[in-house]
Design the sequence.
């Protein structure tokens, strides 16, 4: 099964893009869903795209983040993984995780930053 993910910019194939909200968004970087912590190492927590951006790209200069599945514009969407299902479960809003701030360990749990495969 292919690992579809969340990345950015030149790749344009199911990728998360981390932007800082400002008059002109600043591209900070990208990440793939499966680059997150592995469920093989124990129960992981769920992350929204915004939480993952803050975790990965934290910088005192930037305090507001926005996510995107496009490398050319901010679409405020994300890709993620549903517990024990395929990696790409479609797009969600950038602030979506289920359960929000909870554990990633039950059917229907959704996180944008977890290694589940």
Sequence:
């Amino acid at each position: 099964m292919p690992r579809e993910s969340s990345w950015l910019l030149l790749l344009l194939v199911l990728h998360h893009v981390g932007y800082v909200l400002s008059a002109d968004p600043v591209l900070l970087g990208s990440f793939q869903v499966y680059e997150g912590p592995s469920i093989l190492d124990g129960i992981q927590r769920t992350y929204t795209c915004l939480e993952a951006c803050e975790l990965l790209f934290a910088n005192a200069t930037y305090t507001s983040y926005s996510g995107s599945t496009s490398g050319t514009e901010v679409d405020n969407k994300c890709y993620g993984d549903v517990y024990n299902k395929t990696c790409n479960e479609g797009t969600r809003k950038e602030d979506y995780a289920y359960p929000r701030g909870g554990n990633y360990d039950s059917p229907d749990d959704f996180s944008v930053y977890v290694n589940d495969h």
About this structure: Helices lie at 49-57.
